[in-house]
Amino acid sequence: MKCILTVGLLMQSFLLLHAQYGDFGLPTQPNDWDAVDDLIYYGELNDMSGGYHVGDTVSNFTLYDFDGNAIELYEELAGEKPVMLINGSVSCLRFRNAFNFVENSQEYFVGEFIENTQDLFNYIFVYGIEAHPTDGNCPSNCPNTTSTDSTVTQASEYAYRRWSLESWTSAPEFNFPYPLYADNPDNAVYNNFFQRPFGLLGIGCDGTVAFRGDWLSYFLFDSNNSEQLLDWSNSYVTCSINWPDNEEDGDDVDDGDDGDDGDGSNDQITHGFQGIEYGNASGTSGIHAQSLQAFPNPAGDFLTLVSSAPIESAEWFNLNGQQLQVAPSRTGTDTWTFDVQALEPGLYLLLINGTALRVGIQR
């Protein structure tokens, strides 16, 4: 019962109307000096299975372009064209080749397909984690390269990520006349939607994934996939997301049991909490700044918490809102250590005295 109440309150506290779906939105563009989170574990080399799959309901997000213009996913889903969400980075050669008209590689047909179907699909491009940085963390599921045709480092601050948008869209060799949006400093879109360097998600107006491409170029190489996309566009009917109603009397508040209350709503809490203070490896945000530290983060076998105030409670949750039984192996007034060897690699939320920390586990 405590877990159900905790999860329900966390989800309610930020945005009731988005309780069923979740939201990664930020009300304003991040500051240039905001630190970008460390990479989580994305799987073994060449494992591109992470992220949303066909049939999943996606969370909302708000991202910003170089000039600070915002785009909100759920607003785009209400449009007349199906949304095609694509991610890429400067060091991903497949992404670069798809729009490099100078080299005219075999993957340039991807850019031509996009250019020729602008009237059929709403393409949204997201820039985030570098696939093959020459300096900095490399995603666990991507080959670690020491040199490429360009020197690109993994962004450590939002400014680097934001200015990469400008350098990409202004490069003369690329035919890329589309808006490009930077992932937030917490890498929320990459971590939840993709976990791969050049992915595609075709998303219906109800927020459900209709198409998924592990690699956009390989996906479109298959003529059956491109034909199915065109058929989808031709038969597309707009709709609106069926937000839970009667929230004031609590009838449709997610209760965390992943079951059916008989009211037609899906009780599963998807991908994250909102309206609470988040922290990272250097501490927490807001009024709790510098009061709580977790290290190492990402953790391998053990995670240690150090607080400037007594730690009274520590609760672990996965990103579906399920509470996990992770007992501290050592406790003190302001220092607790957890044995996390039993946890699967991935991203978790650790709720400490009402403040949530994002904690990564990697092996």
Radius of gyration (Å): 21 Å
Give the oligomeric state: single chain
Largest sheet: spatial strand order: 9-8-17-16-12-13
What's the mean pLDDT score?
77
Query: Which band does the percent of strand residues land in?
Result: 15-25%
- The count of domains is 2
Low-confidence runs (pLDDT<50, min 5 residues)? 1-20, 243-290
Q: What series of H and E elements makes up the topology?
A: HEEHEHHEHEHEEHHEEEEEEEEEE
Helix content: 10-25%
Q: Number of DSSP helices?
A: 8
Structural classification: alpha+beta
Question: What CATH architecture of the largest domain would you give?
Answer: 3-Layer(aba) Sandwich
Helices and strands in order:
Layout: H1 2-12, E1 62-64, E2 70-72, H2 73-77, E3 83-88, H3 93-99, H4 108-116, E4 122-127, H5 158-170, E5 180-182, H6 188-194, E6 200-203, E7 209-213, H7 216-221, H8 223-234, E8 278-280, E9 283-284, E10 292-295, E11 302-307, E12 314-317, E13 323-324, E14 328-331, E15 335-339, E16 346-352, E17 355-361
Parallel strand pairs: 3-4, 4-5, 8-17
Antiparallel strand pairs: 1-2, 3-6, 6-7, 8-9, 10-11, 11-15, 12-13, 12-16, 14-15, 16-17
Structural overview:
- This protein is α+β, with helices and mostly antiparallel strands and 363 residues long.
- The protein folds into two domains: 21-234, Glutaredoxin; 278-361, Immunoglobulin-like (Sandwich).
- The chain is 19% helix and 20% strand.
- The chain has eight helices and 17 strands.
- It has helices at 2-12, 73-77, 93-99, 108-116, 158-170, 188-194, 216-221, 223-234, and strands at 62-64, 70-72, 83-88, 122-127, 180-182, 200-203, 209-213, 278-280, 283-284, 292-295, 302-307, 314-317, 323-324, 328-331, 335-339, 346-352, 355-361.
- The protein has a six-stranded mixed beta sheet, with no helix packed on it.
- Strand 14 and strand 15 (335-339) form a beta hairpin.
- The longest helix is centred in the middle third of the chain and has 13 residues, at 158-170.
- It is globular and about 65 Å long.
